[in-house]
Amino acid sequence: MPDTNHNTFTIVISDEQLALLKRHNFPCSEQVLATARRTEAGFELTGRWLDFDTLVGWVAGEANHARKNRRPNQTDLLDDIADQLESVLAYHRADG
Predict the structure, then answer these.
(1) Does the pLDDT of residue 87 top 60, yes or no?
(2) Where along the chain do its domains lie?
(3) Alpha-carbon separation of residue 63 from 2, 3, 9, 67 (angstroms)
């Protein structure tokens, strides 16, 4: 695998997804959320490999928790964020 930890990667999320991430305040999200920049497509979040890899674990775990507590809207938003993070990680993992 290439040294991806020094490269930065970007995902675009909706206003609603950004608000949800801020509300959960995951221990690893502060640095990524500080990069939030509004674009025409939503909010761009930028982070390093480790930032996104750690964040996806927290987001997926919270999605599972929301699923158990029957919060479908929150589950869908978290699943979408996790999917985007996983896509970026998988793309750059394969890029090596």
Answers:
(1) yes
(2) 4-94
(3) 29, 29, 22, 6
